[in-house]
């Protein structure tokens, strides 16, 4: 898909990717035909856009990652104090991650073009955590790589909470509070 697509072709690709997310989230072994049916297109249309299942999976990962990168940029993390930026980024990331659970949780999201996007997201997360440390939100001796990994785990766990309002802002507050204060008593 190196050249720009016509508007109808773009809509078709978007419909296929959205259907693939829904179908594969329910059944990771779903066929291209099942994805085509869910997208409201023919199997031939899916194969015209994606040569094989691997190409579809890669496009799905890249599309979801692109949306995650856009969500992080939309939070404008460098335009606010670290605490506010961390909350904005977290809420936006939760919105995207809840819509693209399969694509962003699939190991293929860590390969190919998506890998470079993950590297960029990881670097941005470390930059924001470094700023949070400089602003006194994190202990000066905090291992930022470990903190990033814990932060990502908290994001994933927040999306799994049963019976909890899935409001991204409320979940972001929970994630940030847990990241910064843990489960210990408050002073």
From TrEMBL:
Residues 10-68 form the HTH tetR-type domain. Gene3D superfamilies: Tetracycline Repressor, domain 2. The keyword rRNA processing does not apply. InterPro entries: Homeodomain-like_sf (IPR009057), HTH-type_TetR-like_transc_reg (IPR050109), HTH_TetR (IPR001647). PROSITE patterns: HTH_TETR_2. Keywords: DNA-binding. It holds the Pfam family TetR_N. It comes from the Bacteria. Residues 31-50 bind DNA. This is Helix-turn-helix domain-containing protein. It comes from Streptomyces litchfieldiae.
